[in-house]
């Protein structure tokens, strides 16, 4: 039984997690993400799940990773300063291939910055913030409905690829209220268990090992050190390290077509907006107002792994325009993949680009 | 099963130096676990970073070798998500007292049902002998070349103050007492800290005129003050001798605990 | 038709609740679309509180309020901060007992707080009186929808009081147009 609600993005995010079967939340209060934790605190105990407020964000993600090893779908939610604190253990989750969901309701940074205003300034941190080379998955909701849908999907992606999956939202979508259809349960792809006879970190053909859940007699040793397929540390052998890190990177990058989630509007257009998160909504407004087939829009619901092939959906593009709530973090990624100019349209301070601002940008750059 | 059945034979030899005290602590722990009747399937060892934290890698159970100082936070997630699992944490003085100090006091406060065994060798061994929050005043380390000027943390007293249900301290010399204390910790619902003063001949003894393992163990033995004796000295108004540390059971109580199996 | 509605008053008057109720009425009970946003500051109480809701028959693409055309003002500070620049074609309802203002747009005085205190016996429902008056004056949502949304949102045991407040608001609104 689904039900219609008028609710905040952060609450819808928590509902999406619950619908996906999340049973563990470890968190720490931080504006503007706190409503996610508050809703989980309200709902999880009644469903037999566990909510725990930890002593900081480092401990929050640690607890979520620990819970995940018992087979639980586990998550944490935070914003910039807490996200920075989580970085070391995000690397641990990557290295140990621990599925977990990390929600970042982005606010203005650097440092304490603007706690109550939106930004998209953590997009590169989410991809590259922990030390070493690796791959992760990140979704970017543009509406309250997508907070529900994409949070639920993040759990599937985390389990499917044994990787931390990020919901990279922001204060605008997190705090706005809209109508949302809450499905009681959503389609879930369960974690693939470790097959008999396989080693705990022995990859399948897709580069992803089966999951040796704790308490099932696998005697799995899980370490953040470079390890072999048994999970045993092998921290000095160059070949072991190269094999492991290449696999952690490739299991995500090589699956990016399968993982990708984006929308293409007006593929014959010559001027193309590329957006993720709420700037998409300004572009929708502009395209609605102008109704011009020469203006295209690539809207990414999932930013990492970056679906560079989606840019080829606009073969006639002469310029890509990128409104972002940062200094052009993803426009660099687009620049790497196209031969035409990419114009970054940064906006800082917490408000969306207005339709008038993007119309002006169109006049200048088309 | 015997204690030997718990070891990953295919990972021997281990990384510990000749004369290291950690082996005795691991053996005492496995003997206590064995005594509890726990199985390899329902027991999880968790650790942070440091010499102590390599211990789970030599034990044939599910185990999490985590990040520096954070073992108790990971362990909290494991235990609360599945209280049917028995959780034992190995940690060291750098791991628990320095980088993990905040997680330590909150784990005691929450009283999550687990046993933390701290191998306190008073030095950062794995990184080559730097001073830790438990390095005694005056002791030489690579970062205290003129003698440590800082007061030390009393981890056991800290655990008592922060609310742990069971706290004991022994040394690697007191093997029988240590095993009994760990067994008590495993039995006690709630958080248990068993601190073990242990020798690091390579990185502590060598620089502090305790070059021989036997010298270090003798040092631990002669500087251990039984808690009953300390209490008697206090009652009699006599001073506690300088440089001594208290051993014995410091608390055993039944405050409300989290993650206790129903 | 897109309407951008701005409510302002002081913390504790239920300003945010009012915009949420209005958005809920439109989105859940009138088949319209609504996006509600608010200004978050570090203060938990007092200060000038402000909440906004966009209501449209069509899906709302751009979700931020840029040119509010309907104002509900319940404090003098709120008027100064969020109301006095209202454009000439806007509609404004002010709590006439708390706000002394003559903006350059169509403006209706509703004695909501006084009415809530005297007739209804509880000044806490002044915001619901204002909501009722707003619906009567603008027809932004249907009376049935706003009543359902009010009933969804108020504490148990206060339903009858709030419905009376809402209906009193309808009457006061009818009286000024």
From TrEMBL, chain A:
Q: Where is the Pyruvate flavodoxin/ferredoxin oxidoreductase pyrimidine binding domain?
A: 15-246
One Gene Ontology term from the biological process aspect of the record? response to oxidative stress
For this protein, the record's Pfam families field holds: PFOR_II, POR_N
- Report a single Gene Ontology molecular function: 2-oxoglutarate synthase activity
Alphabetized UniProt keyword annotations: Coiled coil, Oxidoreductase
What organism is the protein native to?
hydrocarbon metagenome
Annotated coiled-coil positions are 238-265
Matching NCBIfam families: PRK08659.1
Record protein name field? 2-oxoglutarate oxidoreductase, alpha subunit
InterPro entries cross-referenced by the UniProt entry? PFOR_II (IPR033412), Pyruvate:ferred/Flavod_OxRd (IPR050722), Pyrv_Fd/Flavodoxin_OxRdtase_N (IPR002880), THDP-binding (IPR029061), Transketo_C/PFOR_II (IPR009014)
Q: Which residues form the Pyruvate:ferredoxin oxidoreductase core domain?
A: 269-357
Q: Does the keyword Oxidoreductase apply?
A: yes
Could you tell me which PANTHER family the record lists for this protein? 2-OXOGLUTARATE SYNTHASE SUBUNIT KORA (PTHR32154:SF14), PYRUVATE-FLAVODOXIN OXIDOREDUCTASE-RELATED (PTHR32154)
């Amino acid at each position: 039984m689904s039900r219609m609600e008028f609710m905040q993005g952060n609450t819808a995010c928590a509902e999406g997690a619950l619908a996906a079967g999340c049973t563990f939340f470890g968190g720490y209060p931080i504006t503007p993400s706190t409503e996610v934790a508050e809703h989980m605190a309200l709902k999880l105990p009644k469903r037999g799940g566990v909510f725990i407020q930890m002593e900081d964000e480092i401990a929050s993600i640690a607890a979520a990773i620990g819970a995940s090893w018992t087979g639980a779908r586990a998550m944490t939610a935070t914003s910039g300063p807490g996200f920075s604190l989580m970085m070391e253990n995000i690397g641990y989750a990557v290295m140990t291939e621990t599925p977990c969901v990390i929600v970042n309701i982005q606010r203005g940074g650097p440092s304490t910055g603007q706690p109550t205003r939106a930004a998209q300034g953590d997009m590169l941190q989410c991809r590259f913030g922990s030390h070493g080379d690796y791959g992760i998955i990140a979704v970017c909701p543009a509406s309250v409905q997508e907070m529900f849908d994409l949070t639920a999907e993040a759990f599937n992606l985390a389990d499917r690829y044994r990787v931390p999956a990020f919901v990279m939202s922001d204060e605008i979508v997190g705090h706005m209220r809209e109508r949302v259809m809450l499905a009681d349960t959503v389609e879930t792809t369960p974690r693939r268990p470790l097959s008999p006879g396989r080693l705990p970190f022995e990859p399948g053909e897709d580069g992803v090992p089966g999951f040796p859940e704790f308490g099932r007699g696998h005697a799995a040793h899980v370490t953040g050190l470079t390890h072999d397929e048994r999970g045993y540390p092998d921290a000095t052998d160059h070949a072991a390290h190269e094999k492991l890190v290449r696999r952690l990177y490739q299991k995500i990058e090589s699956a990016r077509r399968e993982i990708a989630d984006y929308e293409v509007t007006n593929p014959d257009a010559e001027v193309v907006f590329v957006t993720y998160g709420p700037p998409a909504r300004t572009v929708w407004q502009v395209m609605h107002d102008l109704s011009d087939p020469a203006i295209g829009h690539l809207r990414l619901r999932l930013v990492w792994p970056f679906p560079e092939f989606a840019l080829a959906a606009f073969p006639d593009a002469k310029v890509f325009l990128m409104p972002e709530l940062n200094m052009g973090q993803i426009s660099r990624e687009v620049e790497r993949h196209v031969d035409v100019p990419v114009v970054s349209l940064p906006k800082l301070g917490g408000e969306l680009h207005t339709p008038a601002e993007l119309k002006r940008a169109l006049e200048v750059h088309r | 099963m015997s204690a030997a059945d718990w070891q990953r034979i295919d990972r021997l030899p281990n990384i510990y130096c000749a004369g290291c005290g950690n082996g005795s602590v691991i053996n005492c722990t496995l003997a206590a676990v064995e005594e509890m009747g726990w199985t390899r399937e329902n027991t999880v060892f968790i650790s942070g970073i440091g010499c102590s934290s390599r211990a789970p890698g030599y034990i044939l159970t599910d185990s999490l070798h985590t990040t520096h100082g954070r073992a108790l936070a990971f362990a909290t997630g494991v235990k609360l998500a599945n209280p049917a699992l028995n959780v034992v944490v190995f940690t060291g003085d750098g791991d628990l007292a320095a980088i993990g100090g905040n997680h330590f006091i909150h784990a005691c406060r929450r009283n999550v049902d687990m046993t933390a065994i701290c191998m306190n060798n008073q030095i950062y061994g794995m990184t080559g002998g730097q001073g830790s929050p438990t390095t005694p005043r005056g002791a030489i380390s690579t970062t205290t070349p003129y003698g440590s000027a800082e007061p030390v943390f009393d981890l056991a007293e800290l655990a008592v103050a922060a609310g742990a249900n069971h706290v004991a301290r022994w040394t690697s010399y007191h093997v029988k007492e240590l095993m009994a204390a760990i067994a008590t910790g495993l039995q006690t619902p709630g958080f248990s800290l068993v601190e073990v003063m242990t020798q690091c001949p390579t990185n502590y003894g060598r620089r502090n005129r305790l070059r021989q393992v036997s010298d270090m163990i003798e040092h631990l033995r002669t500087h251990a003050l039984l808690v009953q004796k300390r209490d008697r000295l206090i009652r009699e108004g006599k001073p506690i001798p300088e440089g001594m540390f208290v051993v014995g059971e410091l608390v055993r109580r039944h405050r409300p605990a989290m993650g206790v199996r129903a | 038709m897109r309407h951008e509605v701005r409510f302002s008053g002081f913390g504790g008057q239920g300003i945010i609740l009012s915009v949420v109720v209005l958005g809920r009425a439109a989105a859940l009970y009138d088949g319209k679309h609504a996006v509600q946003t608010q200004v978050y500051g570090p203060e938990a109480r007092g200060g000038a509180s402000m909440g906004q809701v966009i209501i449209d028959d069509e899906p709302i693409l751009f979700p931020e309020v840029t040119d509010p055309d309907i104002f509900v003002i319940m404090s003098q500070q709120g008027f100064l901060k969020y109301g006095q620049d209202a454009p000439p074609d806007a509609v404004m309802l002010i709590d006439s007992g708390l706000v002394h203002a003559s903006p350059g747009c169509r403006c209706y005085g509703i004695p909501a707080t006084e009415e809530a205190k005297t007739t209804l016996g509880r000044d806490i429902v002044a915001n619901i009186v204002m909501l009722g008056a707003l619906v009567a004056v603008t027809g932004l949502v249907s009376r049935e929808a706003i009543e359902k949304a009010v009933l969804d949102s108020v504490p148990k045991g206060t339903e009858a009081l709030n419905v009376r407040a809402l209906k009193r608001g309808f009457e006061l609104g009818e009286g000024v147009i």
